[in-house]
């Protein structure tokens, strides 16, 4: 269990502005999380810029805020949708990944399902594959469990080998102009274990 409580609001105003459904959900989620026996992680609840939903997030990485990678869910009324989240805007990925959670129900039901989902992900092994060119990291991807599938979460054109982006486009390894199918990059130069699978 972490030293800090799970799912503290990222802004005192967020906590004050929770509606009845959100308060019930967050309270039940926090209560369930207190019983977890998982390696610590950074977590919080907040809102995206458009205030369209309540988000509950967990950072699983080694960055200054515990991410990337960032996983979390959106609560909107009587539904939750969880998956990897964009670190800046809390967007869910499209298409969704194998980690996705989608459920409908009461706040207590959704909190229980969400807590089980978070706990399952928190028990997974998480590694980062890194690719280097001229001594500088130009790409990385995060893998959960033993899944070898993935996409690059970071790809820096100005650091990558010259002409590589065009090659990746030509062979269909670029997905929607944003993600790179990292299997096309070959073996990573380094693999960093961020979290070990919990018993």
Secondary structure layout:
Elements: E1 8-9, H1 12-16, H2 20-33, E2 42-46, E3 54-59, E4 70-76, E5 79-84, E6 101-104, H3 107-122, E7 126-133, E8 136-144, E9 154-155, H4 164-170, E10 174-175, E11 179-180, E12 190-195
Parallel strand pairs: 1-2
Antiparallel strand pairs: 2-3, 3-4, 4-5, 5-6, 7-8, 7-12, 8-9, 10-11
Summarize the structure.
The protein is of the alpha+beta class and 199 residues long. It is built from 4 helices and 12 strands; from the N terminus they run E-H-H-E-E-E-E-E-H-E-E-E-H-E-E-E. It folds into 2 domains: 8-122, no CATH class; 126-195, no CATH class.
Description:
It contains 4 helices and 12 strands, in the order βααβββββαβββαβββ. Helix content is 21%, strand content 30%. The model has no long low-confidence stretch (mean pLDDT 90). The protein folds into 2 domains: 115 residues, no CATH class; 70 residues, no CATH class. The strands form 3 sheets. The protein has a 6-stranded mixed β-sheet. Strands 9-8-7-12 form a 4-stranded antiparallel β-sheet, with no helix packed on it. A two-stranded antiparallel ribbon has the order 10-11. It is of the alpha+beta class and 199 residues long.
**Strand residue percentage:** 25-35%
Number of DSSP strands?
12
Shape estimate: elongated
Largest sheet: 6 strands, mixed
Q: Reading side by side through the largest sheet, how are the strands ordered?
A: 1-2-3-4-5-6
Question: Could you name the ranges where pLDDT drops below 50 across 5 or more consecutive residues?
Answer: none
Q: What string gives the helices and strands in order?
A: EHHEEEEEHEEEHEEE
Q: What's the gyration radius in Å?
A: 18 Å
Structural class: alpha+beta
- Quickly count the domains: 2
Helix tally equals 4
- The level of helicity is 10-25%
Mean pLDDT: 90
Distance between the termini: 14 Å
């Amino acid at each position: 269990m972490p030293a800090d409580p799970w799912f503290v609001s990222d802004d005192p105003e967020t906590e004050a502005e929770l509606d009845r459904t959100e308060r019930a959900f967050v309270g039940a989620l926090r209560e369930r999380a207190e019983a977890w026996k998982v390696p610590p992680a950074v977590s919080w609840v907040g809102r995206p810029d458009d205030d369209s939903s309540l988000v509950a997030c967990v950072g699983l990485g080694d960055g200054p805020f515990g991410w990337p990678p960032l996983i979390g869910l959106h609560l909107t009324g009587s539904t939750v949708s969880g998956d990897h989240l964009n670190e800046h805007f809390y967007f869910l990925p499209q298409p969704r990944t194998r980690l996705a959670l989608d459920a409908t129900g009461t706040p207590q039901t959704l909190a229980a399902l969400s807590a089980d989902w978070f706990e399952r992900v928190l028990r997974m092994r998480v590694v980062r594959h890194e690719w280097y060119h001229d001594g500088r990291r130009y790409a990385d991807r995060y893998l959960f469990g033993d899944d070898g599938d993935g996409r690059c979460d970071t790809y820096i054109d100005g650091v990558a080998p010259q002409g590589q982006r065009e090659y990746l486009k030509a062979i269909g390894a670029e997905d929607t102009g944003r993600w790179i199918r990292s299997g096309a990059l070959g073996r990573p130069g380094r693999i960093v274990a961020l979290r070990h699978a919990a018993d």
